[in-house]
Amino acid sequence: MSYKEDKNFWGIPYGTEISAEAFVKDIWDPTTEEILTPKQFLGIGWGVNLHALGRRVGVIK
Fold it and tell me: Does the predicted TM-score (pTM) go above 0.85?
């Protein structure tokens, strides 16, 4: 995982940032090929990286 600080509780990641950058990084992160990424924006669990999903499906080159 390419995030500088992964926060987790019993193996479940959580995010504590409340910013537009963290929200966008949760749903659109071209720096990684992982489809499920740990939450950066406020919440628990994993976010779906739509950029990586689009690349795997072939919609994005």
Answer: no
